[in-house]
Design goal:
Layout lengths: L1 H23 L4 H6 L6 H10 L6 H13 L13 H36 L4 H15 L2 H15 L22 H4 L3 H7 L2 H36 L3 H8 L4 H40 L4 H10 L3 H29 L6
Length: about 325
């Protein structure tokens, strides 16, 4: 009951932030929509009434909460289309990028942390520590621009923006470009060329977003693993003559990953959301992050409200998922 109450209070707080914060920003969505010079008072009042912006603010908020509780976020002021429809069309791009970042972060960050813990105070440990400190300190937007300058402009190895070369005409079936380019219709026309083009476009945004999570996973894994390797049961396992790899991967790493799962998972979600907004804007990635930025410029209230609320729900669900994963990984939590 306590958790349910906390959840409802959190959701209520998110709706308040989603509704009121954007209204504190300067700019009028009606004038942005119809144009300041071409609007006459009657046209302005009609647009204001059509968007329900002529009602008292608290009445607008209650209307937003009532519609959102039924899964209706309204229509975009700019396009006139349903907010749910527009968000659903963009989520696959953001999820595809997020999955690539998760995989790269785990594949690089966790092994780096393990190696640093095993080789404590060695040159390798110092290099990994310095590398993780640099990765954690670099701002996402700065790193993205540097990668574009080096790999796209100077070396010409990677594309600057987008998800696919314009030479390929891929019909979106799932919205996930790496999957759509492998469907029979796409492979019949282009072979695997379209798939490799999609991978090519994914490279720089993934590297940009993954820098901070890799550093965090490496540092946390190193600290946790160093502590576990000093435990009595590890010394007992060594005294029994077990192989070093078995002790590390089967006995030490499982316990060392518990705090990494908890803190790292929550950190990853928060950094992924902030990173997605910046990265998608820099690389012209057509996901939810760039959509939110464009909506803020246009003062598209329904889109901003719906996006913030959905992201808030996503963070809450991820929190619950991390908690569940922690219980699965730690048998003592099930008692």
């Amino acid at each position: 009951m306590i958790k349910l109450g906390t959840l409802l209070c959190t959701l209520l707080g998110i709706t308040l932030i989603a509704f009121f914060v954007i209204r504190l920003a300067p700019g009028n969505p009606v004038l942005l929509m119809i144009g300041e010079r071409g609007a006459d008072p009657r046209q302005y009042q009609e647009a204001l009434h059509r968007l329900s912006l002529d009602r008292p603010l608290f009445e607008q908020y209650l209307g937003f909460v009532g519609r959102a509780s039924g899964g209706d976020f309204g229509s975009s002021i700019v396009s006139g289309r349903s907010v749910q429809t527009e968000l659903l069309a963009r989520w696959p791009a953001t999820i595809e990028l997020g999955v690539a970042v998760i995989l790269l972060s785990l594949l690089v960050g966790v092994p780096a942390g393990v190696i640093a813990a095993i080789r404590r105070r060695s040159v390798v440990d110092k290099l990994i520590t310095v590398g993780s400190l640099i990765g954690y300190s670099m701002p996402v937007f700065w790193l993205g621009l540097v990668l574009i300058l080096v790999f796209s402009e100077m070396l010409g190895l990677t594309p600057v923006s987008g998800r696919l070369d314009i030479a390929f005409d891929i019909r979106p079936a799932t919205g996930f470009m790496l999957i759509d380019t492998l469907l029979p219709e796409a492979t019949a026309r282009y072979g695997l060329d379209a798939f490799f083009s999609a991978l090519h476009h994914l490279l720089l945004p993934t590297l940009t977003m993954a820098a901070t999570p890799i550093a965090v996973f490496a540092r946390m894994t190193r600290a946790s693993m160093s502590e576990v390797l000093g435990e009595d049961y590890i010394r007992t396992a060594r005294a029994k003559g077990l192989a070093a790899l078995r002790i590390i991967w089967l006995h030490a790493l499982r316990n060392a990953l518990l705090p990494v799962i908890t803190v790292g998972g929550l950190f990853f979600v928060s950094s992924a959301i902030a990173g997605a907004i910046l990265t998608e804007t820099i690389f012209g990635w057509p996901g939810v992050g760039s959509y939110i930025v464009n909506s803020v410029y246009a003062r598209d209230y329904p889109v901003i409200q719906g996006s913030i609320l959905l992201i808030g729900v996503l963070v809450i669900l991820t929190n619950a998922g991390v908690d569940l994963l922690y219980r699965v990984a730690n048998p003592r939590m099930r008692v």
